[in-house]
Amino acid sequence: MKNLKYIIGLFCIVSITLVSCEKEFDAPPTTAIPTGNVVTIAELRAMHTPGSTVEITEELSIQGVIIADESTGNLYKESYIEDATGGINLRFISSTGLYIGDSVRVYLKGSKLLRYNQMMQVDSLHPDNNITKIATLKYKTPQIVTVNDILYNLEDFQGELIQLNSVRFIEGGQGKTYADAENLASVTRVLQDINGNQIDVRTSGYANFASDTIPSGVGTFIGVMAQYNSGAQLLVRNPNELNMNGEAPIVKDFNDQSLTSGGWTVQHVTGPSFTEWGIFAATNSAAKISCYNSSTSMGEVSESWLISPSLNLTNAATPSVNFRNVVRYGTIPQLQVMVSTDYDGVSNPNTATWTDLTSLAIWDTDINSWSTWTSSGDLDLTPYLSANTFVAFKHVGVNTSGVGTWELDDITIVN
Amino acid sequence: MKSVKLLVVISFLLSASLKAQDEASLENQTDTVLKEKFVPQYSTSLGVIDEETDNQDVSGLLQSSKDVFTSIAGYNLSAGRYRVRGYDSENFSVMMNGISLNNPESGRAIWAFWGGLNDITRYQESKNGISSNQYGFGAIGGFSNIDARASSQRKGSRISYANSNRSYQHRVMFTHSTGMMDNGLAVTVSGSIRYATEGYVEGTFYRAGSYFLSVEKKINEKHSLGFVGYGAPTVQGRQSITTQETYDLTGNNNYNAYWGYQNGEKRNSRVRNNHIPMMMLNHYFTINAKTKLTTSAFYSFGRSGNTRLNWQDAADPRPEYYKNLPSYYDNPEDQSLFDYYTEAWQNDVNTQQINWDQMYFANTKNLHTVQNVGGVEGVNVTGNRAKYIVEEQRNDQTRYGFNSVINHELDEGVQLSGGLMMSNYKSKNFQVVNDLLGADYWLNVNQLAARGLTTTAEQALQNDINEPNRIIKQGEKFGYDYDMYINTQNAFAQIEGVSSKIDYYTGVSFSRTATWREGNVENGLFLDRSVGKSEKLTFLNPGIKGGIVYKITGRHLVAINGALMSRAPVTQNTFLSPRTRNQVNKSVVNETVASGDINYMIRYPKLKVRATVFLTTITDKTRVINTYDDVLNTFGNYIIKGVDQRFLGSEIGVEYNVTSTIIATAAFSKGDYTYTSNPLVDYVQDNISSFLITNKRVFLKNYKVGGIPQTAASLGLKYNSTKYWFVGVNANYFVDAYLDVSPERKSATATATFVSTDPQYQKLIEQEKLDPGFTLDLFAGKSWRLKNKYYLRLNVNVNNVLDKKDYQTGGFEQIRLDVQNVDKFPPRVGYMYGRTYFAMVSFNF
Predict the structure, then answer these.
(1) B806 within some domain
(2) Which residue has the higher pLDDT, B125 or A38?
(3) How far is B775 from chain A (nearest CA, A)?
């Protein structure tokens, strides 16, 4: 019986140690990814021979910050990296495990440098064997550019993080989604700036925001610039960083050949009827004004106002007005742009207080051509926030020779 | 001191000699039982969540049967995955001292929980088919009651050593029984150790212990009290079941995708680690000469876990994943990738098997900052985030209850039995990080949640919204965490009579089962439904059975048995997606089981025969299959409602003593096991509460139940020498085995794209029949008697002597289907082992 106890004890000990000592496996020795020669992204891009796929056989690395990742599903097995010299698309053989803000070194040996429909990319990267993570949360600030900056310099912006201000989706407010989540199909939506310049935004049907509605308003867009053949294709990283809820701009383009549609008014204070605001009717109509009397070849004394509808700017962040102008025959008298917060909308405008913004605008000075349309630039309306703000264009005729004719178009008031 | 004790053990092994008994088969039985048996009724579509149930073979039960057919078939045919009458193991009832050991969650008895206690479990009372049963109502396949009373154990000691090349390589077992001592006490102890660095299948290791204690105290002539406690801690590397392509590429029909080299050592990613001790108290009350009352209380608890790889932000590391196989790159226009992968599979062990070193490499350099850890603004943690981990999926159980059974002799030859049973079961289901593989932490988010959501809410990604972005270290819980409760009450009554011409029995049973889920974490996807208690589902299940034996003469008998019962659905099928939410599968109903058999038996001293025809229908079964869809990037549950099956067949067993020393045995069974309904299917995703598919008809009717040979035969010859040795041979034949069909392939949506003359259409609708298999087994033994009181025995048996490795024992079609290419997700199949042996010496003293 005594032996028995020992034997049982032995069995218990052995069986418990046998099972409870979970076998420990030695961790394999750690190895580092080689670095080789570190080049800038611009230098790497320069290594590409047009029309070919360059196999990178040298010990070469680039270093930069990840500006787009797979976390929202808009990218799959790819990423974008940017350094001070440029950006490039990285394509992997599997999920990348990279996150925006990762500062990484990409070992390029064994990968391929190629253009896919003009978009430069490094292909065939292995997320573990080619990437060394150096630091995290190194977020890159997007560079603020205009639509035209991109459209005219596609190559310069490829693979870079950009920000566009005062843009809107032309289909915004119609309930359209970023992409077709049901059929997992990519969709292109078009962004437009206040000057009407357009650029594509393309979203994958696999993105987890594919079925989200695109924003309806105007504001700031942040994304990655990619190229598809001769066009640009912006990629949304995360809809949360789009701040496009501003009210849609008031655009007066006179294409309906009406001066007063949309609540605009003309106040002809004094002068013959030909000195009143009129329409230059054409495919792309404009408003037109002159005090020139063709029978005397002199100007007439006159005063005529083109006045916006009442604008509620109470909640506006950075309201501005922007218009295009052209002058011919003479720069006298100067067309004026005015702003008021106490006008009643119907009376003689001279009963109200107006601030003259004329000096802030850029005006055409070439009196020899109708084709020198000039953008005024954005005239800041922030000092005039009110529930009842008016913007007006005032023309005061003078009785001299050499008076000109002004045309005005695409008046855009951004909330 | 320890070494002294070890010497004691070894000396016991060597110091005596004895006499033999045909025990090899019994030893072998547990061996087969413990072997990974992958016989799903339905397939899972992808390996990520494949079947984890311990699908235990019941052959162990059957070998000890006294029935002439069952004892032959149960042993000899188990290697070919033969199942008696085609039944799943939930149709067999296993008890110990009258307490049911079938797991309430799966309905199955899990032999691994008492593995290695063969010296105890071989003493069992077994009956096959529908039968009388003094302990409970039983099941249509039969029952077995292990007698673990200390006073029932044979007095003496036994020590044995076994060597094998199957699951384990070495086994040492020791048992001692005092018998009923003068002080009214009887004690039995037993223990064993089983060990293999590598079993028959590459990468499978085995480390198991077991212990058993039974104490019985006879208080007086009427009362005895007993205690039984046992457990079998088992850690075991598992074997995969994969597609034919992997077997062809490796030239190995027992290819195991679960292991790989780590730092030059073989490591298995799928480790089963179980330890569910059981304790019971029994009160044996002999009220009078005619009446016995047995009352028991039991408590069982412990851990049951299975490890597997998990990964985030990374490629699927499993070699057998279909995108890691050459066939995925098979493109007639450009075979370069196909050739590349074929070459790698054939020559690079890190492609053919799991590449642990690469996972460590990835993990140790994946610098990442988790922001707002635990939901606390501004708390950031930077470190190497795990891309790959080994996780353990736990199913930790506690169960307690009691039962009370009365047996009363009503009249001469008429026995009345009745009883009450109660069992309360709870399983804790959760995930634990088992190994970070060199990383610093794992992030507790559900990356699969993102896909298919209409919102990008960060919250949706959280497995636990009350502690978002939690960092998980080794040994900590993550992911899902829920408890499953199953409370059962049962009452039964039976009358059984024996007379010179007619034996009869009839019994009734009534059960009530209540089941519910309780979530322990609030999942970001199912805020209101993931945490707390679900609705409670209650099932009421009556049953009735009866049988009669007509003795034409004492040598010729006819028996008829029948049973009709309803059965509560398996709990895991009653919830749509238990991992994430409390949502109940509203369509689940009780299963109905109807079974009957007619038997003719011959009993001569030299000839024993049983011939049987049987018919069983199981209707209204519900099955839930876990799937993973890598297009939708989500786990899903494929719910099949209203599955009906019919099991029709015949069995013949013959045992004939040719001479006084030669015994010939034969067993033959022919079955027709068929689906008889066209069920409806619902398909629900883990991450969305709406259904992907509702009430889609799948045309299963007339397909065969797959994965098992429906016809099998065994012929044996045994020579028993009067000089205490024996030798024997068995020839076994398996035929009419089919792959189990995927319901998804048998639906109108699958076939709609094809005209019926399209070869792909045929591939969709046909059921693959497996080639017949043939094995030859040899066994031999000798025993010696020493000093008139010690016995030394030696047994050897060799299975599949001809080393045939090309017999497919079963398999299943994957649920996953690409209607553009019906061969894209080929069936998974398994092969029988080649030649294996089991040798044992035992010493009784």
Answers:
(1) yes
(2) A38
(3) 35
Candidates B1, B3, B4, B5, partner chain A, best to mutate (most A CBs within 10 A):
B5
Structure tokens of B308? 């597997």
Please give the torsion angle defined by the CA atoms of residues B597, B603, B608 and B614, in that order, rounded to the nearest 10 degrees.
0
Model confidence at B15, pLDDT cuts 50, 70, 90, reads very low
User: Which of B174, B209, B369 lies closest to A7 in CB terms?
Assistant: B174
Whether B362 sits inside 8 A of A127 (CB atoms) is yes
Strands B242-243 and B828-831: antiparallel
The radius of gyration computed from the CA coordinates of chain A, to the nearest angstrom, equals 32
Strands (DSSP E) contained in B289-375 are 291-311, 354-355, 367-370
Q: Are A179 and A307 in contact (CB under 8 A)?
A: no
What's chain A's average pLDDT? 91
pLDDT in tens, A46-81: 999 998 999 999 999 999 999 999 988 899 999 999
The whole-number average pLDDT for the span A315-320 is: 80
* Inter-chain touch A212–B361, beta carbons under 8 Å: no
- A96 CB neighbours in chain B (<8 A) are 313
* CATH class (in words) of the domain with range A250-414: mainly beta
Number of other residues whose CB lies within 10 A of the CB of residue A145: 17
CATH dotted code for A143-245: 2.40.50.140
Report how far residue A334's alpha carbon sits from residue A393's, in angstroms, rounded to the nearest whole number: 11
CA distance B202 to chain A (A): 17
Q: Which amino acid is at A399?
A: N
Helix/strand/coil for A219: strand
Q: Given a cut of 50, is residue B26 above it in pLDDT?
A: no
Domain parsing of chain A, residue ranges: 37-135, 143-245, 250-414
Please tell me what DSSP assigns to residue B436: -
Quick check: B665 and B655 in contact, CB under 8 A?
A: yes
Other beta carbons within 10 Å of A182: 10
CA distances from B208 to A268, B178, B579, B835 (A): 102, 26, 30, 24
- Of the candidates B360, B816, B445, B317, the residue with the CA atom closest to the CA atom of residue A94: B317
Pick the CATH number of A37-135 from 3.90.950.10, 2.40.50.140, 3.30.450.20, 3.40.140.20: 2.40.50.140
Residue contact B360–A240, C-beta within 8 A: no
Q: B763 CB near a chain A CB, below 8 Å?
A: no
Cβ of residue A15 closer than 8 Å to a chain B Cβ:
yes
Which residue among A30, A94, A137 places its CB closest to the CB of B369?
A137
Residues of B in contact with A95 (CB under 8 A): 313-315
> Residue B83 domain-assigned?
yes
Evaluate whether B779 touches B799 at the Cβ level (below 8 Å).
Answer: no
Q: Min CA distance, A12 vs chain B (Å)?
A: 7
Query: Would the ipTM clear 0.90, i.e. be above it?
Result: no
Nearest residue in A to B356, CA atom: A28
Residue A237, classified by CB atoms within 10 Å of its CB into exposed (0-12), middle (13-18) or buried (19+), is buried
Q: Residue A228 has what pLDDT?
A: 95
Q: Please give the tally of structural domains in chain B.
A: 1
B441-480: pLDDT as tens digits:
999 988 765 554 444 467 778 888 888 899 999 999 999 9
Per the CB < 8 A criterion, the answer to whether B98 and B135 are in contact is yes
- The nearest CA of chain A is from the CA of B1 a distance in Å of 10
